[in-house]
Amino acid sequence: VLNEEGIKEKQENLRSPICCIMGHVDTGKTKLLDCIRGTNVQEGEAGGITQQIGATYFPAENIRERTKELKADAKIKVPGLLVIDTPGHESFTNLRSRGSNLCDLAILVVDIMHGLEPQTIESLNLLRMRNTEFIVALNKVDRLYGWKTSKNAPIRKAMKQQSIDVINEFNTRLTSVITQFKEQGLNTELYYKNREMGETFSIVPTSAISGEGIPDLLLLLVQWAQKTMVETLTYADKLQCTVLEVKVIEGHGTTIDVVLVNGALHEGDQIVVCGSKGPIVTTIRSLLTPHPLKELRVEGKYLHHIEVKAAQCIKITAQGLEHAVAGTSLHVIGPDEDVEEAKKTAMEDMESVMRRIDKSGEGVYVQASTLGSLEALLEFLKSPDVEIPVSGIGIGPVHKKDIMKAGAMLERKKEYATVLAFDVKVTAEARELADRMGVKILCADIIYHLFDRFNGYLKDIKEEKKKETACQVVFPCVLNILPNCVFNKKDPIILGVYVANGILKVGTPMCIIKEIENLRVFMDIGRVASIKKNNNTVDSATKDEMVAIKIIASNPGEQKMFGRHFGIDDELVSHFSSRSFDILRANYRDELSRDEWELALQLENMFKIQ
Ligand code: GDP
Hints:
It is an enzyme of class 3 (hydrolase). Keywords: Cytoplasm, GTP-binding, Hydrolase, Initiation factor, Metal-binding, Nucleotide-binding, Protein biosynthesis. GO terms for molecular function: GTP binding; GTPase activity; metal ion binding; translation initiation factor activity. Belongs to the TRAFAC class translation factor GTPase superfamily. Classic translation factor GTPase family. IF-2 subfamily. Residues about 40-45, about 85-90 and about 295-300 have low confidence and may be disordered. The strands form seven sheets. An eight-stranded mixed beta sheet has the order 2-3-4-1-7-8-10-9, with helices on both faces. It has a six-stranded antiparallel β-barrel with strand order 25-26-31-28-27-32. It is built from 17 helices and 32 strands. About 30% of the residues lie in helices and about 30% in strands. Helix 13 (about 400-405) runs parallel beside helix 14. Strand 2 (about 50) and strand 3 (about 55-60) form a beta hairpin. By secondary structure, it is an alpha+beta fold. The structure holds guanosine-5'-diphosphate. The site of guanosine-5'-diphosphate (GDP) has 17 residues, from helix 2.
């Protein structure tokens, strides 16, 4: 534990905290980033903001400038703030480096008009799983009816201008959000009322359109980080670096975009990166960042650096990076370091994920953009209310070879011959092959959408099977013949019946059970051709209903007659074969009530003994 002196000393030597933005779609993640960045007003460049590869860097002066109304001048100790710039791609926010979180903290965006949404909860669970601290941005406050805009103002100042109605609506919605968080087992509170930071998560009301609350959000992020994460944020020589993305860039070949969390990288460093075909040992040819005046995603002119110090996002060019795996750690081989040892370390991340594949060898094939997102997805698929087994994994775009691997399930379990593609592209050849082989590809960039799609697919398969087997399935029922309701004795037999048990359906083969010399004998009567209830034609009838049925002999030569082959005291029961029972169990089990299923088991047993 550090004493005051120790903390002070360390605070002199901090790196920038790394922050990511998460939340449900359309809550305003992109807009919030734009607003923090100030892209619309061009003040970005002036304030020294630099756009990096996949991130934006806010230097301390810029944060000071923007938070001056909060009188926080002396309180900012970190050199800046690095915000990972990929909202919507939760795959990036689950990135890790050396087993710990890559992001030091997160902003969880919630739309004040909508409260917690499915993906908010998904993000929340990810953050909790990773033990990542976060701040809730309660966004879109300007949408409260009657809101008076005060551009870029601290939130308390902005609130002072609002009418009592706006404040009331705000309070109601805030309380509701706090309650919803509570339902998720989490204490939250407005940040300026929060006396137990750490135990209780802070909420900062914001507008990404007019900028209210943005100063508060920036200051809180920085202050909280430097207060509670001194150890993690202390600049170290030991390298901590994670591969964000593997990309082919014209003129540079395959490059890797990395987040340098701690330490420094130099041109000419010998590095090891985890590759899908084994460890990659190579030398850094160049360290690149976008030209300051260029828009982030414009690829072209890059600035070259001889040395880069944490925290930064950079592009590395080097030879042999084709099979690098996004989401894994990058290692620099020091002068006294053993290359073989470094190679082993480099592959550890990948191996720990490989161990999560289902041992039975039966399951779906999962493909994700980074190791981190793959881990998150595997974690989700394993959770108790999901439980989808996984037989194989891949990282990066879906290629033909992945389809081949998924296709191995076609023989064993058709529904598992499926690729769950999470936030990755599918090559045209892969799609074509999948179509030809009958492998299903399900794509999504939100985990729970993938889950919904897979469930939808399972349902479709089930429906298909039902259709195929519809003419062979037999539902269990026991019928009593009603007195004075024999309308036709034969050809066809028409009777009034009482459904004593089970479910009566059109198409069911009916039989009579007779005991002859202690031997049970079944006599087939025919199939139910139609059912009428109160003179209306129906498809089925359930227990305790009284209906009229028409029975037609299954084979023309085997016609039976009421009064001769059977009588008023005989019970009619559905005739099960073991095949029809199997179909019932496989495809219709969940449609039957408990009693109906009990009856099915009873009847099946009876016919089996015969
Ligand atoms: P994302 O999907 O979370 O990245 O959401 P976007 O940033 O794309 O925003 C979704 C929509 O909400 C866009 O039409 C934005 O203009 C709008 N929006 C975002 N933030 C705010 C806000 O604070 N106030 C209002 N009124 N609209 C917002």
